[in-house]
């Protein structure tokens, strides 16, 4: 068995992540970030909580929704919600 | 017998609660690979060591603070402390999120047992869980299970038996709601998250960081802007091809097989016994013909529910919601409103209930109003019969066109309602995309069988009752006339009602003599299944008035042999005999229908009307309960008017060359009606604010 790489799900970034707030909706495909603030309670409960490591799987300008990965889970999020979630890179 | 002890299954959405519920109790509740399949409380009573145990399956929640109607069901159930034991179903592949709810349940003081489901998925992702440590940290038993394969369910049952039957736990006194206890709900949620992370960190070991999965690679294509919608349509086309064309030989076989016994055989046998004509009409032409009609629906209904079951369990449904998000945004709905719409292809009733997952009442009402445009399984037999009678060489394309017409009308109606009385923007939302999975064969077959059985019970009762009723009315009418003169075709009260109403449908191509088609539409309001049962009985009676062809005397053996031979030929298992006509099912009804409808245009206009007009009684009852009586009435009036306008416009356009002036007149009437509907809705929206309308 390989050595344990990380524990728990969803995966999280190290605590010393630099502070550079950016909106989730603005992040390009393939980019990563750590959720800093999410004012939407439902999505926080679903796993998009502050501290969670997030990766953009799909973000096209003409789409009204984004596809993101948080740990092993995949979500599609409306752009209006993504525009309210702030990330630290 | 003592009162049953209650056990509730609680957990996050799509963690396999219903699968576990089915595995523990032998029930056949609906399952699917997306969040929000279970929207109401399901329960059953099982016996454990001779004592009754009430097992309750609750809709999935992430936290007790409920956002939607389905979540409120769970929240209210748990807060009223009805359960002597709560089985908290955890997702082993996403433990941290599951544990947030576990913490909340523990805070509530509920007696808890954790079922760690999806351990196989976790293993495949390189996640190793220390179950003993998890149990120790949570302070409750934790049992690993793979509910889909029934693994570990014996241990759960044994634990239930030990905890409930041998020493039933006393229900703890009601604790204050966790938010109330913790003060600030935000802080309480943060504390639960911190706890969940801590526990998950302690018990989960990961071989490697999360990597791109096969599902992600598939999603690159399925979610593609230009490929997604055509691919969805292609999938639906394959479903309808399999349902209509793939099952046609089986339909013909069942028609021959069941007809040989229940209609021709029964008629010959009763005639030999010297039974009165009225009794023969009731048993053979009424009940027998009704049962044959039900039997012929088995292959297409089973096929469509099997296909929908495969789609639902594969994980494709939330992807379809993503793909259709852009379209639904135009009518002020979130993409996830598409899931109830797809469920509507099976049956409108669960589709209406599925709207409970939507957060806003405006979104729910709008989705409920357009859901009946999704053609349900009960309408499929009508399409199949008409397609076979009038469009035999491209029947599957005709059926597909009808389904597309339903989707188009749903979008157009949504735009109209969104622009007038149901204005508003779709709410911000998030929907989980579960990983794709190979649809479990048994689960899909169970899903198809469960739906087929429901259809057979409902359709059997309605169709046979309608068939007997109509046969009786017709036979009585003929008997009465036979005392005065020779009986005329269609002399009963059903014919009289049909003839009286038929002029209303004349603009869409139903002629005065085609009164059975009108009666079919009237009985179809009770249940769509009864349309074809009505047509079968009434056209058969009209057909009986035709001069008899040179038919050989009835032989049960010959009919059965012919049916089997045609079946094996149709599926290519035997060479087709030259000069042998292909029997396609419902021969008597098809011939009578071809005579009754003056053109293909009239037949297609009739199908359009069946597609669009008022939902059945069962759907209306749910609509009234979920949206209110005013919206239910609106749905009946709006859909029936729209059905008449669409069918009339189609028929008049298709036959304009034959009668241009008449077509111009009726098209003007349709345009005026459309203008009237739009104006009424616009004025209504101006007079009353949206909140008052809702």
Helix content of chain A: 10-25%
* Overall domain count of chain B: 2
Low-confidence segments of chain A: 1-13
- Average pLDDT score of chain A: 80
Stated plainly, the CATH topology of chain A is called SH3 type barrels
Number of strands of chain B: 9
Mean pLDDT, all residues of chain B: 85
Element string of chain A (H = helix, E = strand): EEHEEEHE
Largest sheet features of chain A: 6 strands, antiparallel
Strand order of the largest sheet of chain B: 2-3-1-4-5-7
What is the CATH first-level class name of chain A? Mainly Beta
Please state the structural category of chain A: mainly beta
Distance between the termini of chain B: 47 Å
Overall shape of chain A: globular
Strand order of the largest sheet of chain A: 1-6-2-3-4-5
Name the descriptors:
heterodimer, A: 89 residues, mainly beta, SH3 type barrels, 6-stranded antiparallel beta sheet, 2 helices, 6 strands, 11% helix, disordered N terminus, B: 694 residues, alpha/beta, Rossmann fold, 2 domains, 6-stranded mixed beta sheet, two-stranded antiparallel sheet, 30 helices, globular
